[in-house]
Amino acid sequence: MSEKIKIAVDAMGGDGSPKKVIDGIIYNNQSNKSNFYKIFGDKNKISPLIEHKISKDFYEIFHTDNAIKSTDSPLEGAKRGKDTSMWLAIQSVKEKQADIVISAGNTGALLVVSKLNLKMIENIDKPALSALWPNKKSMSVVLDLGANIECSSKNLTDFSSMGAALYNSLYPDEIANVALLNIGSEELKGNEVIKETYQILNDKKSKNFNFSGYIEGNHIMDGEVDVIVSDGFTGNVALKTAEGTANFITSELKKAMTGNWIGKLSSLLNIENLKKFKKRLDPRLYNGAIFIGLDSPVVKSHGGTDFIGFANSLDVCYRIVKGNLIKKIKQNL
Fold it and tell me: Beta 176-181 vs 59-63: how paired, if at all?
């Protein structure tokens, strides 16, 4: 039997933790026996939730009383000390005792503590926050989603290489189509940084990905592009807009289908199609953002997700390690 992938888990971050996190581990373990969970947090709260639910062959608990709060600023979180569950989980990756770290806790603190503990990959200036988005065909990788408000053309070029490596880690048999998120598809559109990045990527002709030029916001979900690159300001606005739109559509559809007897009848007749539609827009399926650019992978689960969402982000951890993400980023660079 091959050696298990060791995932360092901050059990105390996010809403409803540690129960949500532990339930996610139990759920993930049902379908994947290749993960070993190194769980950091309050043993007195964690043990009763996990004992007798999964075999001790698959987990170990590392006790600490201290945790970073969701209300902490990134700096306050880092100052809470080296005995917080988040810090210890990241440190275990730094010391090569785990392959990857995951937390549903404070995003700013996770980025700061990760940068304090882990080195940057050589020649990368800034890490990016990337995530998976659904599209008509499958999934797209989108980055940066908020780690860097301002970016240079060098940063965006690096993001393109890292995003392509992430896509290839998740889908090993495919070469990624990479595009820059812009206000138009014509070569002359956009600010100077975007236009400069376009020229660099167009001239570079990377063998690790295909450069597809610009993509506009209304074509993100078309599925023609696998990796969408932007600065953190634009990427975060696009992410929040997409999330809000998906929530609006599902809630309005629910109202229409349950408002009167005609709606209720049509929803009964279309129950299977409605289930498929709801599942397609279920944010839990796309949970698990990734900080890339550091020399070890760091995964951020959405703080508000439930245990199924957390289990899905554990699956992302498995696929990233199995797909040799860091090695592929270095090759791309």
Answer: unpaired
